[in-house]
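User: Sequence in, structure out. Go.
Assistant: Echoing your sequence, followed by the structure tokens.
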Amino acid sequence: MIDNGMEHHMAISETPDFIEAGQGPKVILFHSSVSGARQWRSLMDMLSDRYHLVAINLFGYGKTPAWSDSRTQSLADQASLAEPFLTQDGDAVSIIGHSFGGSVAMKAAALYKDQVDRLVLIEPNPFYLLEQHGKLEGYKEATKLRDAIKASGQSGSWETAAKVFANYWTGKGSWDAMPNERRSKFAEALKPNFHEWDAVMNETTTMAEWEAGLPDRTTVISANDTVRSIREICGVMEASVPRWNHKQIDQGGHMAALTKPDLINPIVADALA
């Protein structure tokens, strides 16, 4: 019988699934929930003449193994997927993350601090910070969403979970507007999110610790019309660490990294340069 720690260690000793493009300084990318490494295609196309871009599939996406039910997932578990891609010659890398991938990117940048030069967070989702900073309405929104995903996931009602998830992140009625085939794919892609909530909600790092642990060259990008929970997280970050680079776009919502690359990608390019 292998103990869970060892089993977990063995699972991630293999290189996770990833896509790569370009040559130059290395940039590691972490995707959002219900997405995958391919969400970065347009950004990779734009930057591949300047950088070596590596987009990692998190646990349960692409061919990266699904998370085992045997223990609770942490942000450090997801962040450790970056380890095989750190440069052997000690050259600094940059890290980019969107939504849940933003929380993973924060953890990876802190864990591998000596090798990370720049960090770009697009609408990151460390919801636990809302509770730490007394933003209780935003925190309640997040816990309500988590509880819906957990309850539906435990009973195997993934379409129910997916409806709640889609309507929260992309607006009321967005689930009903989806074609049936897209709905079933979306519900299937939501399954890893069951464990991602544990990783985000059980994190305890304070903003003061993040400030000390993350690169001075950290950029936080958000949309003014995003959901309350994310707007408040980005507000907490700006109030706590004003010297970071805080950038807003007017419209695009939480999924702007995918739906408005024309607005987001140039800001990311500037942040890396």
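User: And one key feature?
Assistant: The CA atoms of residues 33 and 100 lie 6 Å apart.
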